[in-house]
Amino acid sequence: xxxxxxxxxxxxxxxxxxxxxxxxxxxxxxxxxxxxxxxxxxxxxxxxxxxxxxxxxxxxxxxxxxxxxxxxxxxxxxxxxxxxxxxxxxxxxxxxxxxxxxxxxxxxxxxxxxxxxxxxxxxxxxxxxxxxxxxxxxxxxxxxxxxxxxxxxxxxxxxxxxxxxxxxxxxxxxxxxxxxxxxxxxxxxxxxxxxxxxxxxxxxxxxxxxxxxxxxxxxxxxxxxxxxxxxxxxxxxxxxxxxxxxxxxxxxxxxxxxxxxxxxxxxxxxxxxxxxxxxxxxxxxxxxxxxxxxxxxxxxxxxxxxxxxxxxxxxxxxxxxxxxxxxxxxxxxxxxxxxxxxxxxxxxxxxxxxxxxxxxxxxxxxxxxxxxxxxxxxxxxxxxxxxxxxxxxxxxxxxxxxxxxxxxxxxxxxxxxxxxxxxxxxxxxxxxxxxxxxxxxxxxxxxxxxxxxxxxxxxxxxxxxxxxxxxxxxxxxxxxxxxxxxxxxxxxxxxxxxxxxxxxxxxxxxxxxxxxxxxxxxxxxxxxxxxxxxxxxxxxxxxxxxxxxxxxxxxxxxxxxxxxxxxxxxxxxxxxxxxxxxxxxxxxx
Length: 589
Fold this sequence. Notes:
By secondary structure, the chain is mostly helical. The protein has a single domain (3-331, 339-585), classed as MetI-like (MetI-like fold, Orthogonal Bundle). 76% of the residues lie in helices and 4% in strands. The protein contains 22 helices and 6 strands. The strands form 3 sheets. It has a two-stranded antiparallel ribbon with strand order 1-2. Strands 3-4 form a two-stranded antiparallel sheet. A hairpin with a 2-residue loop joins strand 1 (3-8) and strand 2. Helix 2 (35-55) packs across helix 14 (345-369), helix 2 runs antiparallel to helix 22 and helix 4 (107-122) packs across helix 22 (553-585). The chain is globular and about 65 Å long.
């Protein structure tokens, strides 16, 4: 078997060739924007232009569905909303596992896939919704277009943090586990099943909870979406709550919010809490934790004879057949890493074709930009700076309170029993439902609208940080906790030497997605209709929202592209460097 020498400082050791790619230390010390970023951005420009051109042919009027406020209709609407969430989540998980694995397995693919992911999570989803929905409505029935657009919107709110979490887990996988896989000659399937997925389990579960919390926000936005005379509303909890509020039916509003909270509690008790109890076995530690998480439903399933029979007679035999089949079809191969590092010829041809298509679309998009006046163009840099300051303020406030609370929930099981459900319920209630109430008091204050804008960004993004910090805290090995206690470390020393280094990769993962979410939330935070009049502050989100309302597609194109370029630049110059630092220095070994 081929070996090579891995150097860490002054130490060297032999590593098998079959797992060479999993031992690689990232070489890109200065992840500045490069050619791959330029190609991806050209592709985004082409996609934007194509969507805008299709939107020109959208129908001028679309009749919306009739929304019943009867309590008998509420379970059906809840089922519709829950179905859209499940479909979007399934697509998000499939995408995340495949995409993250490819990015972590090959430097050649990583150089392309990570910039693409940076751009995708930087795209302001709400500004794309009218473009995508109007474009789809020219190709298919209005209701079908609305369904696809809603699932796509929820998918984009769920997939990126799952992908970043999975990629972070793969790139920080302890080397002794990788060596064990090499010694046992695991193929790709067994590495995934026995090493990678268990190591990432806690992070993926907590990020799944975060994805669902964020998904409710965008589900509500998708179900109540209208553009002028085009009513693209969908039967669901969002449309039910909007209709009830518009008609002043307080009892219907209470019932709708109650059903939403009930769904969140049921998901916590029947899915997330059992998964956390099950995944606790995968914590990387050498001693048993003091008080593992518990779940009454998980205990019920484990003690049920039906479940035991299904496991012995259906599930276990099925997995054995799958393992045997995949082991036979995909045996471990020497030199596998080298083959992964070389792009396939078909991949190169596809890349060339995509580049040509992107160049053509960018050329057409440049023509659309020429329709934007000089005055409009000069307003974009000022708007970007204003929104950047609000995003930075929201992130600083979020980190200040999520860091201590996340550590408490992740390390204190007794507190977690009470706080975890409250956090999930609070995170899942759409921030837009609370925003009008906050705005009512904020508008009377000096700089009240700016405060309200930061507050909405905070409500929509703080949960990305909190859930990642909880996941990181829960993953701290218990033996390291005991060691810090035996050494008599004070609170400050313990945080400096154990807590913050352990949480660093999770904080960066949460901050990346929270930052993208804050930029996206600016579209509804900086431009609002309240009390029969429109209120707005200077910001790029305000420009995007105003251009959408005026059907000024050229300005919508320009302002959206400016936001994407800014967020991608921040990601590459700031967040990507911190990601590299997490991979190289803060691996849990």
